[in-house]
Every structure is written in C-alpha cells, then in structure tokens.
Hints:
Blueprint: H1 6-10, E1 45-51, E2 54-62, E3 66-69, H2 78-85, E4 93-97, H3 116-129, E5 135-140, H4 142-153, E6 158-164, E7 169-170, H5 172-181, H6 183-196, H7 203-221, H8 226-237, H9 244-253, E8 257-258, E9 270-275, H10 282-291, E10 295-300, H11 307-310, H12 312-326
Parallel strand pairs: 3-4, 3-5, 5-6, 6-9, 9-10
Antiparallel strand pairs: 1-2, 2-4, 7-8
Amino acid sequence: MSxxxxxxxxxxxxALSTACAPSAEDAPAPASEAAGxxxxxxxxxxxxxxxxxxxxxxxxxxxxxVVLHLTNSWGLSLEGLRGLYRxxxxxxxxxxxxxxxxxxxxxxxxxxxxxxxxxRADFHAVREHLGLEKVHAIGWSNGAMNLAxxxxxxxxxxxxxxxxxxxxxxxAEDMQRFxxxxxxLMQRWIAMQQELAAPELxxxxxxxxxKAFWIEEYFPEMMADPQTSATRLWEIFRAxxxxxxxxxxxxxxxxxxxxxxxxxxxxxxxxxxAGAADLMPPEKVKQLADGLPRARFVLFExxxxxxxxxxxxxxxxxxxxxLATAG
Length: 327
C-alpha cells in the first residue's frame, strides 16, 4: 500500500483497461415488482433487499422524478452521497444504496465484492426491485466513471446519465501531471500511505486514519476554497462509513481507466459536470462529454470536486433543467 494511487489523487480512480460485464454470480435476481415506467411515489425510508443470497441496503428520500445513485466503489456508505445531494430531495426521489461490505449491506464474501462490477450489479438489482425499467442515474467521481461503463453496457436501462466530476480516461500521464502540479499534496499522500502500510494496523485502524486524512486534509484541497471547506466537508461525511479495504482493492484492481471507446454506445441524454478549480482539469472532464452522442457539458466556475456543495443552488437548477428535458 506504499505507492500513491492515481485514482485517489484524482478522486476518480477506478479503472479498467476493458470493461467487465457482471458475472453470473453478480447478476441481479428477478425483480420483485413488475418493471414499468418510473414511479414518482416511492415510499420513503430505509430498506433491505434480499437478492442472490445477499442483502443490499438502500434508502429512499424525497419526492418527484426518481434518481438512482451509482455508489462509489472505493468505500463510501450511502450517508456520504446523501450528504452531497440532500437538498435535491425537495425536487427528486433520491435512491441510495450501500456497497457490499459497508453500511447495512451484506459483508464481503470474496474480493470481487469490493469492485466496480459488484456496484453495477447491485444498481440493477435495486432498479429492478423498485420496478424501474428505466431510471435517471447519477454518479460522482469514481461513481461517474463507473456510470460510463454501466451506461455503455446497458443503455436501455437508463432515462439519462449525470456524470459529476468524472472522466473518460485516467493513466500515467495524468498521474505525472498531478505530481508536478501538487508536489506537497503528493508528499502528504505518500506519507499517509506509508503510515497505513504498518503491519500492526488492521483494516479498522487503517480506515479511521484514512477517513480523517481525506476529510480534514485531502478533500479540502479538491475544493475551490480549501481554507473554509473543512467544516462543511466534515458535516457532510462525518456520518458516512469509509473503507480502507475497498480503497486498497480499487488501487490494486484498477490501476488505469479508459472508457473512451465505449462512449459512442451511450445513447441516452447525458449531463457532464466539471469544476473549474478541480484537481481534475475541466478540459479532461470535457473529453467525456465530447465522446457522448447526446451530452451537455456544464462548467461550475466556483467549484472544485464538490459542485453539489460548493454551488448548491446552481447545481439544483442545472439538474432540474436537464431532467425536465431528458424524458
């Protein structure tokens, strides 16, 4: 665990040189309700879905058009995403779920439960269980990159796709640029990784130290105004579970990412959001929009990697306008 992770420094790391469809074991069980048009009256609350011998914990909040989140594979329970998007619950029915091994979902049984493919399979399991033949999907950072794979594999299951601070590719050149532009942050990251590599630390201890570093030091550096962001980020993520085990698996399993040759297959309306002050340059994010047949690219001038928090009113308005025309 001593080397710096490309995906972490971009907070988008997750990659696959080739996208993998869910295996037979990961395929969602038949829906418990007949698939149909997206309902706007889903019961709010906290629920457990039994599927394929495991439990997926999910929550429904709000009212209006249904938006299903593709959770992040690097280890973030649903409280983190709800912290980002809670204000949208006045306009949308927001559906979140915990990745395997986190929150209320079943423990990890095998390493593949820690990966992006497992998240995509559970997304479809929740979607089918809720009777959503097609759904508006949203992904942030790692989740946005995984959404590109999901949308290319199963475009017929989506009404629209919203990519928040994601990219179409990430590799060695991007890592080198980060190191050159932010050497001090790189050194802090390396020091943290070396600390986590201590053999006497178990996964719970590693997770506690990783969460503190990310929220107090790393995440603020990804915002337009790092000096005033720490308190806001702690309020958003303090109730969320993190997972050093998931992060370690993501680092090992997905050392690079390139979905550019898959973008043409994503035929649904797409919204691609970038932050002008993000460590992931807007021009890099725009490559994702340029490769999608029906994409709208929106730059948030006063945001870094957290546009839903840094410019909440504009984010809400942009999403409202997009989904109103997306079908």
